[in-house]
């Protein structure tokens, strides 16, 4: 028999894009925020946290991985709570200390992240106390090589980040670098299945309880990508373009194409039989327009 996590010490903030969801875990002596959203939403993240802390301090920030939409609010929170301790997954601790945006992939995606500090490494195979509950740390590579998921065994609740959503999972970024990672996605889905979780709190979208069905849907999506890697590349291209368009909202089409033509991941995904990068980008933007995700008018592009 399982019970819901106590409402007074578990708060799930379902965010809209550009930010990841956040989870605030409040214990008798601590308050921990899991993931902090995108940098342009940092003030909103802080306001959400403050409205629930009601004058208490934030003691810890825990990042499931270091994509810009999951750690972009770290710096703002660190400024507001100078004593907060920030825990990040292994693999990028030194890159954060040196603030190497190439290693951290902010340059590759053409996205922003304010400089923040990291204090500790969140090691898979360990546990930590947050919200008066014990959370297990599990490696969950695939979407990101260093990503982790957090599992609370007494209630069988899972914070899955971008390893599992209700209808899929995040872009498999190592694949865009030519590193085979679809097998790691499959292994992570196998791991999540073993938890037999009763409820999942994903990095994007609403919390869900149909966990087995979600895993089945994710495996079906993965199978499509394995058999047709170009489908994954097309999906990733649209995600990166749409993400930046949501950040800009509206700007001259020429400026947007210029940004896209300088984004390393987008440049690397241009098919070899498409020597004209701008023409290829225009064709992808046309697909976004046809799907209703963007609008072009008078040489301006708008997010819709």
Q: How would you describe this structure to a colleague?
A:
- By secondary structure, this protein is α/β, with parallel strands linked by helices.
- The chain contains twelve helices and 14 strands.
- It has helices spanning 42-53, 68-71, 74-80, 93-98, 106-109, 173-176, 182-195, 211-227, 229-248, 253-261, 264-269, 277-290, and strands spanning 10-13, 22-26, 31-34, 60-62, 85-88, 120-121, 127-130, 133-139, 148-152, 157-161, 199-202, 250-252, 294-297, 300-303.
- The strands form three sheets. Strands 1-2-3-4-5-6 form a six-stranded mixed sheet, covered by helices on one side. A five-stranded mixed sheet has the order 7-8-9-10-11, with helices on one face. It has a three-stranded antiparallel sheet with strand order 12-14-13.
- Helix 7 (182-195) runs antiparallel to helix 8 (211-227), helix 8 (211-227) packs across helix 9 and helix 10 crosses helix 12.
- It is globular, with a radius of gyration of 19 Å.
Shape: globular
How far is the N terminus from the C terminus? 44 Å
* Main sheet attributes: strand count, strand direction, barrel closure: 6 strands, mixed
Mean pLDDT: 95
| Tally of individual helices | 12
Strand tally is: 14
Would you identify the regions where 5 or more consecutive residues have pLDDT less than 50? none
SSE ordering: EEEHEHHEHHEEEEEHHEHHEHHHEE
- Structural class by helix and strand composition: alpha/beta
How are the strands ordered across the major sheet? 1-2-3-4-5-6
How much of the sequence lies in strands comes to 15-25%
Query: Helix amount, in percent?
Result: 25-40%
Radius of gyration: 19 Å
């Amino acid at each position: 028999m399982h019970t819901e996590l106590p409402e007074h010490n578990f708060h799930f903030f379902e965010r809209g894009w550009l930010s990841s969801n956040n989870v605030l875990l409040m214990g008798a002596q601590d308050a921990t925020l899991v993931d902090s959203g995108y940098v342009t939403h940092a003030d909103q993240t802080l306001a959400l946290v403050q409205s629930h802390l009601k004058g208490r301090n934030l003691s810890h920030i825990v990042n499931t991985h270091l994509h810009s939409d999951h750690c972009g609010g770290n710096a703002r929170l660190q400024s507001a709570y100078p004593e907060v301790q920030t825990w990040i997954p292994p693999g990028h601790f030194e890159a954060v200390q040196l603030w190497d945006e190439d290693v951290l992939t902010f340059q590759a995606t053409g996205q922003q992240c304010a400089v923040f500090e990291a204090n500790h490494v969140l090691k898979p195979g360990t546990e930590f106390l947050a919200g008066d509950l014990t959370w297990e740390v599990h490696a969950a590579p695939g979407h990101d090589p260093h990503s982790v998921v957090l599992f609370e065994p007494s209630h069988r609740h899972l914070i899955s980040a971008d390893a599992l959503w209700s209808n899929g999972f995040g872009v498999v970024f190592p694949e865009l670098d030519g590193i085979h990672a679809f097998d790691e996605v499959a292994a992570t889905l196998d791991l999540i299945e073993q938890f037999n979780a009763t409820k999942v709190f994903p990095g994007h979208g609403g919390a869900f309880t149909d966990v087995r069905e979600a895993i089945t849907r994710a495996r079906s999506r993965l199978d499509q990508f394995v058999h047709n890697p170009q489908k994954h590349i097309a999906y990733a291209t649209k995600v990166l373009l749409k993400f930046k368009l949501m950040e800009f909202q509206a700007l001259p089409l020429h400026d947007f194409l210029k940004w896209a033509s300088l984004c390393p991941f987008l440049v690397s995904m241009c098919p070899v039989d498409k020597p004209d990068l701008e023409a290829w980008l225009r064709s992808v933007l046309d697909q976004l327009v046809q799907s209703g995700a963007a609008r072009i008018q008078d040489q301006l592009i708008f997010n819709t």
